[in-house]
User: Fold this.
Amino acid sequence: MAVTAQAESQRFLTMTLGHEIFAIDIFSVREILDYTDITRIPQTPEFMRGVVNVRGSAVPVVDLRMKFGLGQVERTLNTRIVIVEIRHDDAVSVMGALADSVKEVLELETDRIDPPPRMGAAVRADFIRGIGKHADRFILILDVDKVFSSDEIQDMSQMFAEGAPSAPGAPFASAQVEEEFVR
Assistant:
């Protein structure tokens, strides 16, 4: 009797930034919000769009297109704020990532994910965990812990850490996000 090796896979939430498709690990995603009013915080970097109210807590929101030098996310019917958990040292922070749209949850086998490119990517190579191949497209897989670990973002998230939901596996964790898109 032959034993067959089962390929490992990972689940990702895909989203668009401009004309590119990006993905983040589904286990980093807490929830997805429709675009809502964002309160601008003075003297913050341009890509730091401000804060949104998530169940009574102020959550900082980063415009990923601006962070990556791809222009600004414009408000449309498809614009979303993806609430993610970021691990930095031993702390967990909650941040919002503004995206042009959220597409789907997809599963990629690990052998279909290549290492990040050394050049030519739309974003800094250290922000990219890998490049996934799905259908006839490449998907840039972001490392959210690195994207959101820059000093200015960490300073912003620390300002709002008080009262922010920070326990991993909160009631609105990734299983709920996945269920919404895997129908």
Q: What stands out?
A: The CA atoms of residues 45 and 52 lie 16 Å apart. The two ends are 36 Å apart (CA to CA). The chain has one domain: 10-181. Confidence is low (pLDDT under 50) at residues 162-175.
